Amino acid sequence: MSSERHFPNIIITGTPGCGKTSHCEMLVGMLAEVKHFSISDIAKERKCIAAHDKLRDCDIVDEDKLLDEIEDDLEEGGILVDWHACEIFPESLIDLVVVLRCKTDVIYDRLTERGYKNSKIQENLDVEIMEIIVEEARDNYDSSIIVELESNTMEDLEQNCDKISKWFYNFPTNSENDYLRGITS
């Protein structure tokens, strides 16, 4: 946890279709001090796209260039990082990692509604089933700053954002022992 930033940086991560963007958009409405960084959009805006993966129909982000582009923003604080991966962001610049979890049937319905190809839907379901994103968070950040939240319903979304906003306004007064109190309870 940084003592230099007035406002924390929070990663909202999870499998595509789990509600990352919905959470960030709701949090922006609740927290006037934050900026929503949809990494896919930021990478395009700041010309950090290395290539396009035709098989998966997605852009490949130049992660080093991206980090160079957003480092000053992260040092200032108050950033909601919205991306399906979290491991590229230095732990020294991140204060909370929220891993959204979702039932596979919910993810399936959401991705189908978006028009994803069956192969892309299956790949994302496998990521959720095998807990790939949770493991990336655990491998790259201290467990004291990671929280897993269910994101299956509108009620989950509202409760999660309420908990995160309360945590946000207690930053940086959260002590090591109760850092995630209120979010996990």
TrEMBL record:
InterPro entries: Adenyl_kinase_AK6 (IPR020618), P-loop_NTPase (IPR027417). The keyword Signal does not apply. It comes from Ascoidea rubescens DSM 1968. It catalyses: AMP + ATP = 2 ADP; ATP + H2O = ADP + phosphate + H(+). Interacts with small ribosomal subunit protein uS11. Not a structural component of 43S pre-ribosomes, but transiently interacts with them by binding to uS11. GO terms for cellular component: cytoplasm; nucleus. Residues 113-123 are annotated as: LID. GO terms for biological process: cellular response to oxidative stress; maturation of SSU-rRNA from tricistronic rRNA transcript (SSU-rRNA, 5.8S rRNA, LSU-rRNA). Broad-specificity nucleoside monophosphate (NMP) kinase that catalyzes the reversible transfer of the terminal phosphate group between nucleoside triphosphates and monophosphates. Has also ATPase activity. Involved in the late cytoplasmic maturation steps of the 40S ribosomal particles, specifically 18S rRNA maturation. While NMP activity is not required for ribosome maturation, ATPase activity is. Associates transiently with small ribosomal subunit protein uS11. ATP hydrolysis breaks the interaction with uS11. SUPFAM superfamilies: P-loop containing nucleoside triphosphate hydrolases. One of its GO terms (molecular function) is ATP hydrolysis activity. PANTHER family: ADENYLATE KINASE ISOENZYME 6 (PTHR12595:SF0), POS9-ACTIVATING FACTOR FAP7-RELATED (PTHR12595). It is found in: Cytoplasm; Nucleus. ATP binds at G17, G19, K20, T21, S22, R114. Keywords: ATP-binding, Cytoplasm, Hydrolase, Kinase, Nucleotide-binding, Nucleus, Ribosome biogenesis, rRNA processing, Transferase. This is Adenylate kinase isoenzyme 6 homolog. Its EC number is 2.7.4.3. Residues 38-61 are annotated as: NMPbind. Belongs to the adenylate kinase family. AK6 subfamily.
